[in-house]
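User: For my dataset I need records formatted as: sequence, then structure tokens, nothing else. Please produce one.
Assistant:
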Amino acid sequence: MITTLAVSGYRSLRDLVVPLGRLTVVTGPNGSGKTSLYRALRLLAEAAQGRLVATLAAEGGLSSTLWAGPEAIGRSLRSGAHAVQGTVRKGPVSLRLGFSGDEYGYAIDLGMPGREHPFPLDPAIKLEAMWTGELLGRANLFAQRRGPLVRLRRAQDGTWREGLTHLSPFDSMVTHCADPVDGAELFGTRERMRNWRFYDALRTDPGAPARRAAVSTFTPVLGGDGADLAAAIATIQAIGDAAALDEAVEHAFPGSRLETGPGGGLLLHQHGLLRPLGLAELSDGTLRYLLLVAALLSPRPPELMVLNEPEASLHPSLMPSLARLLADAARRCQIVVVSHNETLIGALGREAEVAALRLDKDFGETVAAEIDAPRWVWPKR
């Protein structure tokens, strides 16, 4: 389980270190940095997929995603005695992301590419580190990248060997040095990171992918856009917890049940109707709830699942049902929910032990004033 998330220099997250629990609810007012925290977690997962640099470039490049305020916010700035004078930096340009848990930790430091590089929006990876345990130290470090050089510690005798000597600044050691034999620890960590799941694009509009006809095939994991909803539900009925699926539908829509229709489609039988409704006929809220059911009842739960505003399109009456689903899912995997819906947050608190993480803005910076920040050590360039 991930116990600590650290972000430095990304959007409004100037220097944020926060704890994560088994079920964490991230809340706060609009503009407080909730979405930035969600994106930071997703960027870490993109590193394991080899897409981190491209994703940051798509956000406008490093210069557009960096913290836009001063490097340090002292008393004189807060009091107004001194005005902010641009964003001139004394230290190197740096966007740092990291996490750790009981078993392993990872951190990456990105900076600006050289002037001669033909793709100026692509950030360059300056440093990476991977270690065992929660806090980085010399003794527990097992993989390190400085510039183009990657070094790996041998598990047998603790000695170091060179992994790669000319790794591109736009490639991560996580994707290029994770060998199941010579880099087993790095390989294992990468595979666990690749298993993280994120849901923030489950559309319910008339053209939503979930409403279209699709081939029904073995689908133990709902896709990020929900296009394979019918197949994911059929897989839960075949090899997953079919009783929990029926209970989730009954709890939200009393007297209703799901059925796999001809050709692999999904039908919802509702009390009082003469025929079942297909996915194209369902209301936005009903479809959204079924998408969340398919995600949270996955027969192959991930190590970490992150949901951004899952309550969107849902009627307040469905919040207790969603809270029950989230609480049950947290018994199988770690859950992070980003939400500002007080009804859902209250219902979650009644269903499970929740680690509350409230974000606020202070002088343009995202802060979590109500929690004690865990210890964290960034690898040095």
